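Practice problem 4.
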């Protein structure tokens, strides 16, 4: 029985319509920006395997550091114990995060990093006996698949089955120069009722919504308003962190800094699952009390796993190298040049770029996003060309590992031009 046959018999894949899905490709090796299947076919991983891979598959430096850690300390309980990789990683992350960030809380993926942020916020107010429970979030938001993450996300096909079990959230449109004053007036009205606990947002780019992009200036205005009205701000940087928007964090584009920041995906360079929720000192201080009921009762079996920490530290080593930022700039410049070349194509509604991300919105007669039938034809065409571009409905994008070459980018661009013809 082949791997594909066994897969069909034993495995349930994520975000996959199991009845009609094509047999999955059996990947046997990863190297640089490429995958190789069992027949030796090569595929450029143009989306960094769901946005996690920063430095290429099987990066020799990260692999070496992980291997060394595995024979030193593979895992340890993180209650009553600590270890050097976790402490060093927290210290180094805080050196790159905004100066208002003070503490690092470890979890195991992006959804739980968000869940931790939501729980921190609600308990911050609860510990002070202040009744604030309402969250504000953007329309079309995606913040993960846990119940808290789904609640602050958009109500859509991802969570229709669970709608009656989600808590109420006030959703606002992405801010623009045209609607910013109206949005601020709405928030002022809500905050006058003294019930807004926090405002959660994906800074500058909404990933799963179709790589929707918006201006830092408008977000800055909303964050300032939140601070003036004592509303905790939460930046979900699970996708935008670690160079994706052209700066170390998307928060670096902003004048006002979030009180809580969620990280995952690129954190370990694509090697191991890990999540981080950082917070400002005043959040942490609300949990310091003789009253033990004010403890933050949250944790994970693999909290601060030393092997994952070592991968994250190695990834940080590479991120701090000047040549990595030269590559990030090269990718951004190449995207901008390709946008100028292809932006007037009649088959596209829009082409948008932010940092290392370029997104193409294909014109179709269907108005649905996630369930748009164009998705499968896009996927199939590019796989035949040896390029992995997993679309979001009729929207496809390039979000590559930073080690990609100009030649590899040019091949992807030319494949896109061929597809549009």
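Answer key:
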């Amino acid at each position: 029985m082949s791997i594909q046959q066994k897969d069909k018999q034993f495995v349930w894949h994520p975000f996959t319509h199991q009845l009609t899905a094509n047999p999955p490709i059996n990947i046997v090796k990863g190297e640089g920006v490429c995958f190789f299947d069992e027949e030796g076919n090569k595929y450029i991983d143009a989306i960094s395997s769901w946005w996690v891979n920063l430095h290429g598959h099987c990066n020799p430096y990260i692999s070496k550091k992980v291997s060394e850690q595995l024979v030193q300390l593979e895992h340890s309980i993180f209650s009553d114990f600590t270890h050097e990789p976790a402490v060093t990683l927290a210290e180094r992350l805080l050196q790159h995060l905004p100066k208002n960030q003070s503490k690092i809380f470890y979890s195991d993926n992006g959804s739980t990093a968000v869940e931790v942020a939501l729980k921190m916020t609600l308990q911050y107010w609860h510990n002070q006996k202040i009744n604030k429970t309402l969250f504000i979030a953007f329309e079309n938001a995606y913040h993960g698949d846990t119940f808290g993450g789904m609640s602050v996300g958009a109500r859509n096909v991802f969570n229709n089955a669970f709608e009656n079990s989600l808590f109420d959230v006030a959703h606002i449109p992405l801010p623009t120069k045209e609607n910013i004053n109206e949005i601020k007036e709405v928030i002022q009205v809500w905050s006058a009722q003294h019930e807004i606990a926090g405002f959660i947002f994906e800074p500058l780019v909404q990933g799963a919504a179709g790589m929707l992009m918006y201006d830092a200036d408008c977000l800055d205005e909303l964050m300032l308003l939140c601070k003036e009205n004592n509303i905790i701000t939460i930046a979900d940087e699970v996708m935008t962190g670690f160079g994706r928007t052209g700066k170390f964090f998307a928060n670096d584009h902003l004048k006002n800094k979030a009180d809580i920041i969620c990280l995952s995906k690129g954190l370990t360079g694509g090697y191991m699952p890990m999540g981080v929720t950082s917070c400002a000192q005043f959040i942490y201080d609300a949990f310091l009390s003789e009253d033990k009921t004010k403890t933050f009762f949250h944790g994970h079996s693999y909290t601060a796993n030393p092997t994952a920490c070592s991968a994250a530290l190695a990834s940080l080593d590479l991120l701090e190298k000047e040549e990595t930022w030269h590559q990030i700039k090269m990718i951004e410049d190449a995207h901008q040049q390709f946008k100028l070349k292809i932006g007037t194509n009649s088959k596209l509604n829009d082409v948008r770029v932010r940092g290392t991300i370029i997104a193409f919105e294909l014109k179709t007669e269907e108005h649905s996003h996630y369930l748009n039938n164009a998705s499968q034809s896009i996927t199939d065409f590019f796989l035949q060309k040896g390029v992995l571009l997993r679309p979001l409905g009729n929207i496809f994008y390039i979000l590559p590992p930073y080690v990609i070459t100009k030649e590899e980018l040019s091949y992807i661009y030319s494949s896109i031009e061929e597809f549009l013809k």
